Structure formats: C-alpha cells, structure tokens
Amino acid sequence: MSFTELKAFDAVARHGSFVKAAQELGRSQPTLTTQVAQLEKAYDTELIIRSRGKIKGLTPLGESLREITRSLVALEQDANNLLRDAGNLNSGEVRIAATAPVMVVRLTKVFKERHPNVDCHLEFGNSERILQSILQCDADFGILGGSVDHTDCVAIPISKPEIVLVGSNDHPATESGVLSRKAFAKETLLIREPGSETRELMLTKIQQYHYAPARLVEIGSRSGAIAAARAGMGLAAVSEHEIEASEGLSIVRLESFRVFGVNHAVFLKNRSQARLLQVLLDCCNYLT
C-alpha cells in the first residue's frame, strides 16, 4: 500500500468517477484505475462497487477507508502549504464552512485582502452540518453558533450575536419593533430545522418566558426562512449578523427578554498549529 494509491482511492470516492479523479490528480484514467485495483488486490478485498464500467458506490469497507483518507489528504495539504510557501500562504486553498453567509463572506474578504492567491471554497449549513464537515475534513475552518463539545475540535468564541425576529417592512409588528406576549400569541413564527442553533435558542427562550405563537412553521434553511418572512408569511428567527440591509426586512424584538448566541471558530485539534488556520483565526478579529 502506498500513499499514491490511497490518494487515488480518495479522489475516486469523492468524485464517484475515475475520469474526474484522474483530471484532479493530473494522472491518466488507466493509471488511476490500476492504482485503485492494486490497492484492492493487495488486501484481497473490494472497496468500490462497479457495474458495467461505472461506479455505483463504496462498499462498507470502502466507506471506512474513506474516513481515514479524508484526514490523510487534509494533512498532506497542510504539509504542502507549510513546505511550499514557508508560511507565507502565496498559493493553495482553504475550505471554510459557516452557518451565517454574511459572516463567512466578510471573513473571506478580510482573508483575500491578505492572501489574494489562496483559493477560498465556501460551504453553508446549520451548526450540526458544519461541525460534521470539520470532523470529516471536508472543511478546514468553521464558524458556527452554540457550544461545541467534541474532544477532536478546538472551539474559540468570536462573537455574541443577538437572535431577533424579522418580518417584511409592511408587517404590522415592525411598526413598533416590539411584541408583547399577547401580541406574539397572534403571530406565525418561522423557525429553522432541527440542528439549527438559532432554532434551539429561540424555542428555549420563548418557552422559558411562556411566549407561544399562534402557529409554528418549520423551514429548512436560513434563506428559506428569510424569503418566507419577506413574503409576509410570518416572523423569522435569525441571527442579527445574518441580516443584510438590502433584504427588505425589519427587526422585531420580544418585550420581556433578549436572545443572544455565541459564534465559535472551530477546527480540528490536531491541525491547530497549521499557519493557515491561525491566519483565519486572526481574520475573525475583524468581523465585529
């Protein structure tokens, strides 16, 4: 077994195609096919399910090996960045995942001003999804809300955004910008999907203060909740950091309490000394 064979397998598993994997690695397709076949033959096992020359998926053993090769490829990238550029980050790439598009765009802008030749790849999702991307080495650096209790990760608080309600500019509640318990009981609350820290914070707080909306509508993404609020379907619970001035929305707060979250910068503990991650962490100081 060689690292070349493992890297070939990882690329094929990621793309689901020998052709695309060969293009990424700069090898010929027959060479890549042979390298993966040699890996399987050496251990008399099957890693990739093939049918009529096409990849149908990975075997259970292939899935387990993929978990290992993800980390190997990520660590190789760290080594390349360190040795090739002596810490100057004059080239390479970084994968950033975040719960709030507005925040990660700001982070990318600050980072690119310092290191314009490093390619940035962005991913968005809820807190649960972002943490999984970090753990599976599909992202190098994450920004997510709430507590991060995982022994393999470093989580550093970087901001404390307020969780607010937003509605269309012509929504009656936006005139005063404040809702009493009685008024809230007549409203439709647009809430994110399970796994969203914004959802958990808002639901916990309204239950604590005995606020109950007339209707609760679950919407599977931040952009979907914002769109529904803009269309007049109700009031959406979002982080104040996620609201752009151009979105045609007004903020509404609940009379008896305020809701605050905590955003963390998150990365794998075994990569905490990588210069790339330290630079990104420093860039976070310019987000607030």
TrEMBL record:
Q: Where is the HTH lysR-type domain?
A: 1-58
Highest taxon listed in the record's lineage? Bacteria
Pfam families from the entry? HTH_1, LysR_substrate
Checking InterPro entries in the record gives: LysR_HTH_N (IPR000847), LysR_subst-bd (IPR005119), WH-like_DNA-bd_sf (IPR036388), WH_DNA-bd_sf (IPR036390)
Arranged from A to Z, the UniProt key words for this protein are: DNA-binding, Transcription, Transcription regulation
Q: Name one GO molecular function term.
A: DNA-binding transcription factor activity
Q: Would you identify the family this protein belongs to, as annotated?
A: Belongs to the LysR transcriptional regulatory family.
- The name this protein goes by in its record: DNA-binding transcriptional regulator, LysR family
Q: Which organism is it from?
A: Cognatishimia maritima
